[in-house]
Each structure stands twice: as structure tokens, then as C-alpha cells.
Amino acid sequence: MTATLSPGAWPALVLNADYRPLSYYPLSVWAWQDAIKAVFLDRVNIVEYYERQVSSATFQMRLPSVVSLKTFIRPSRQPAFTRFNVFLRDRFTCQYCDSREDLTFDHVIPRSRGGQTTWENVVAACSPCNLRKGSLMPEAAHMVPRQKPYQPSVFDLHQNGRHFPPNYLHDSWMDYLYWDTELDP
Question: I want to staple 17 with a disulfide (CB 3.0 to 4.6 A). Which of 2, 72, 120, 184 is the partner?
Fold first, then answer.
């Protein structure tokens, strides 16, 4: 059976050489075309397949659903300081009111008072809380973050990412994503 697939369909979960995902959030996936290219370049091992296949005049192949890299990629020790990573560290929740809507980030010690744009001084905040706090110090605004801002490790971000599963999870991926979580009795 020849498959007609849209570019975003049939993604392959990408595992490091130790069979752990390269990233949990965003989940490490490749389009099926990239996975097949990596197979032909001998950069990955196919671990699991979809039932779908692609073919040409001289070739036929089931689409890989899980691939593992042949070469181990050492994860970065320190995650990049980005807006997304701040939100992930704070679990996409305003650190003042627990809202998950209209997120931005807030300088706990305002920049106008010498606050730096660093892990230790920036938290996720919804726009209403950010406006309410303005350039006041936390105590003056009666708005102290629920969690003291800190520089997360890659492990911290991976752990938090597990709380936000992607919209698409193929059954063949489950053994590789959540093998180290506590099982139900």
C-alpha cells in the first residue's frame, strides 16, 4: 500500500543513543521524510515502525515511528535563558495568581530598580499581574512569587515538560517516553 502523506503526518520519535528522548518539551520528533533520510545516511537505528509505508519504483519501506541516534549526543548542562524555558520552568503558570492565560514574564526586582534579566530575577506572570505589579518591589506590591526564581537544570525542564504531553503520542512511543514514571497498581 502506497501512502500519500502530508509533510507533518507520521512523525518519528527521536531517541538519543541511550534510548532516552532528546527532549520532552518540545518532544523530540522528526517528520517522516527526515527520519527516512537519516536511515539512508546510516545515522539512526529504527526501533519501531508504523503500519504505513512509502514506496517508489524500486524501493518500499515501512515508516519509522521511533528511531535512535547511532551517536550519543551529550545534553547541554545549562539550558538557554529563553522566554519559553522560563515558562516551562514555571509550568506555564503565573507565579502571582496561578493563571495560565496571557503569559508574559516579570522582573521580580524591576529593571528600573537595578533588576537583571536573569534566571534568578524573572518569573512567568500573566499580563494583569505584570501590569498590577509594575515597577514596584514584590513586598510593596504585596506580590511575592509563589516559587523563588532559579536557574533550572535540563533535568528540571524535562521533568516539567512531562506534565505537558504533546497533542500527538503514538502508542509505539509510550515505552520510550514514560518508562521511568511510577506505575499504577
Answer: 72
